Amino acid sequence: MKEIILLKDGEIVLKGLNHRSFEDVLKKNIKNSLSGLGRFEITSAQSTIYVKPLSDDIDLDEVCGRIARVFGIVSFSRAAVCDEKTLDSVLQTAPVYLEKELKSAATFKVEAKRSDKKFPYKSPDICRELGGEILSKYPHLKVDVHNPDITVYVEIRDFGAYIHADAVKGAGGIPVGTGGKAAILISGGIDSPVAAYMMAKRGIKLTAIHFASPPYTSRRAEEKVVRLLKKVSRYAGPMTMYTVPFTKIQEKIKNECPEELFTIIMRRLMMEISEKIALQNDCSALITGESLGQVASQTIGALACTNEAADMVVFRPLIGMDKQEIIDISYKIDTYDISIEPYEDCCTVFTPKHPRTRPVLKYVKEAQEKAEFEPFVEEALNNLKTTFISADD
Ligand code: ATP
Ligand code: MG
């Protein structure tokens, strides 16, 4: 039996005139997400996107798993394509296609949608005929129109008749690439991969920036970040990661700045360097995984000091979230287990015993200016390492 996947796009429907270009991006993203699984025809009509496998050996479970991670899709249904667009074909197909579901249910109902008005039977007729057919094949079933165990959907559309059970929830959000480009500051922690996921969900295409301080941080810490980003790119699509050599700058902070300001100056330099990388990569915003009050460097005062180091808008999608809420998302996107692997991040190198929770910008800037970081920043920017990240599922 031939199958197809029917997708409902979400918020992009609201975008009026932009709808077409949003839908084009969404179709391209779907196509990319299915790479390696076979050939597909992806078309749209009547506010539905059709993903049609072009050979019989395609693993549709895997296809559905990947589609479930594409932003811009509210729901989708894996459906049987009736051999012909006739009532007979519908009556033949539905009981066979949904045999397993119908056998294990006690109650059911049929819902029919006829968007091809040329089809000679109206929706209530289709429901009645198919309901009767199902009852005759599965006499244990009862009809329950209010709270059925299973709903059998029949869709009579321009290009065919389709049968499916309840739709599956999609990833929501808006298609990646329709919301501009931004650079995510990514550590190996729990928070920043979640922040990356959240902004990709709002249509942002990502570039990743990671600060590494070997030998204080290990190769494996950097590899861990690559593995995290591979998980994120299952949702966000492929991206470039820049690794910034940060050792000399951190040693200089340690040797020349007041200890209680180590972290705040380090974070300001991260923002300054990230902004420069972002500009070179057509990004118009930075993203961090900061959450208000989580640590000393994430108080209002500390964030104000950090924020002043870059002119670019900074998105902090986790700012108002509790740790547990962040962890819940990290489970969902499968980054949690990697994030908790114990490798040193550059943020935990040279941490002060008593960090300033209410740093005064004037003194922070004075301390930073005195140490003259400019040539070091320049050197770091000239020695970026580039890694190409794509999902490997
Ligand atoms: P995370 O779980 O993302 O590491 P955190 O709660 O541990 O966050 P910090 O270590 O203070 O908080 O880092 C705050 C934010 O700074 C991170 O969410 C991330 O955006 C950025 N950041 C921290 N370390 C790095 C790094 N080595 N490279 C790039 N960005 C970093
Ligand atoms: Mg961290």
Beta-strand share of residues? 15-25%
How would you classify the helix and strand content by structural class?
alpha/beta
Q: What gyration radius follows from the Cα positions, in whole Å?
A: 27 Å
* Cofactors, ions and other ligands in the entry: adenosine-5'-triphosphate, magnesium ion
Number of individual domains: 2
- The CATH superfamily of the largest domain is HUPs
The assigned CATH architecture of the largest domain is 3-Layer(aba) Sandwich
Share of residues in helices: 25-40%
User: How many β-strand runs?
Assistant: 15
Which segments are poorly predicted (pLDDT under 50) over 5 or more consecutive residues? none
- Given the structure, what is the number of helices? 14
Following the backbone from N to C, one meets helices and strands in this order, namely EHEEHEHHEHEEEEEHEHEHHEHEHHHHE
Name the overall outline. Answer: elongated
Q: What would you call the quaternary organization?
A: single chain
What order do the helices and strands come in, and which of them pair?
Elements: E1 3-9, H1 19-33, E2 40-45, E3 48-53, H2 60-67, E4 73-81, H3 87-97, H4 99-104, E5 107-114, H5 123-137, E6 142-143, E7 150-157, E8 160-164, E9 168-172, E10 181-185, H6 191-201, E11 205-212, H7 219-236, E12 239-245, H8 247-256, H9 262-280, E13 285-287, H10 300-307, E14 313-315, H11 323-332, H12 336-339, H13 361-371, H14 374-382, E15 385-389
Parallel strand pairs: 5-6, 5-7, 10-11, 10-13, 11-12, 13-14
Antiparallel strand pairs: 1-3, 1-4, 2-3, 4-8, 4-9, 7-8, 12-15
Helix pairs in contact: 3-5, 6-7, 9-10
